[in-house]
Sequence to fold (164 residues):
Amino acid sequence: YFDMLADTAETTLTSLKGGIPMKEKELFNGLSFDELKAHEAKHETEVQDRWGDSEAYHTSFERANQRSKDDWETLSQEQMNLVKPLVDLFRADVPIEDERVQAVVKTNHQFIHTNFYDCSLDMFSGLGHMYVMDERFTMFYDKYATGLAVYYNDAIQHYCIKNS
Fold:
């Protein structure tokens, strides 16, 4: 999950720095299996250093090893499909407290929990903070609309407080 987000963020950075422009349709495309695996290899050391000793990492690793190429590509596209409603709500200036925003956040939380690792509210809150503290993740979300990473983090923090 972290690798997939970081890889898309790198593509976005290239686009924003004058590289190949991304079309709206491309923004919501999932990554291919080969792209996912190449990105995973590229960031393996960082991921190991940051999360290698955690239970979440081990759970995610075990689940990942059980997936086929098609499973990975489907999962990647599902993740992109979960971003689109958030973008639409953000562009419509819907407040983070709105039940529609919170429903999207809940769906994303469940997606991570079901597909990657047991994601407690504390972990989900930490992910939200990472989306604004790590420029790669900020760029991943802000490629859709400037400020989306902050909006999503704020919505996650509200969700976590409301559900704790």
About this structure: The CA atoms of residues 59 and 117 lie 5 Å apart. The chain has ten helices and no strands.
